[in-house]
Amino acid sequence: MRVAFRTDASVQIGTGHVMRCLTLADELTRQGHECRFVCREHEGHLGELITSKGYGLTLLPSSCSDNELDTKDSRSDNYTLWLGVPWQEDARQTLDTLVPWKPDWLVVDHYALDTDWERALANVVGSIMVIDDLANRCHECALLLDQNLGRVESDYDGLLPEDCQRLIGPGYALLRPEFANLREQSLNRRQQPELKRILISLGGVDRTNVTGQVLAALSESVLPASTELDIIMGAAAPYLDEVRQQAADLPFKAMVSVNVTDMAERMCLADLSIGAAGGTSWERCCLGVPAVLVVLAENQVAGATALEASGAAVKIDDADQLGATLPSVLVALFEPGRLERMSDAAAGITDGDGVFRALEAIGAAGGRD
């Protein structure tokens, strides 16, 4: 079976869409299928990562500057800007790439694409699968996956064909196998947790340096000097050098790591995670890691709210208020039993096997006739 992916990463978009598509592609490849990617050449496009894993890649030309892709408000929901070209042009360019390859499935993970684009591709692919988080537009697809906590099937009523299968909730979260593999070990070490090691990860780009704001807030907190900070950043993060210098000046042991390949192991060792309220939330939940979630985009609000309501996390709605809110949040986390209760709540949300459930659905739905 041949599976094509249309997804993008950039300084504005972040890396999460490409990363979860790679998780699905890796398992498809392990099962003997062939995968390739179609991405646009935005700054931070992750093309080198895709090809390093052995996948074919077509980089569509970017016809606008990175400033045009950007928005004044990092929480903007004007997702049409993320495509960089009119959808008709993107559809034509994607068609030119896929017609010779004749994929059995096309997986679309892009907030700027909807039913019009999908219909333009429908005649050259066997079936279309959409990965979405928003439930805000119509799709023409055989499968739709929305892995978010709090989402229900009826949220997509009127937006999908009647025969479209809906894969809804964190049970379908697309996590790499190492998270499920370390789940038991991670949960076992949280029987009587203490707040000693904190993992800090604000996404692969962190274009507004929220990491720096977190570190500034921690330096004013009640954390003891023995606390260890594990700070994760992407190579494309524009404030990487500033964060490294800031970490060196902290009163704690702090290590900054770039483009790590052992995130599951690092989460397993962490007693608390401070991070963005995006797709890594499900990685934390699989391993039972209590979290402080910083909401960085409008599409993260619902998921962060649901995670806080479940007891698995505490959310901070405004990154600009980290200095005022994070120290008091940490004080509350030292209450006896608080971390253990948060860990139990997180572990009940997802077991990390979502990619296998998604592949089972793809296999059951079939592809090209």
TrEMBL record:
Organism encoding this protein: Halopseudomonas yangmingensis
Catalytic residues (UniProt): H17 (proton acceptor)
Amino acids binding substrate: R176, E283
One Pfam family from the record: Glyco_tran_28_C
Keyword vocabulary terms for this entry: Hydrolase
Keyword flag Hydrolase: yes
Domain Glycosyl transferase family 28 C-terminal residues, every copy: 227-346
GO MF annotation list: hexosyltransferase activity; hydrolase activity
Entries under InterPro entries matching the protein: Glyco_trans_28_C (IPR007235), PseG (IPR020023)
Stretches assigned to coiled coil: none
RNA-binding listed as a keyword: no
The organism's place on the tree of life at top rank: Bacteria
Name this polypeptide is given: UDP-2,4-diacetamido-2,4,6-trideoxy-beta-L-altropyranose hydrolase
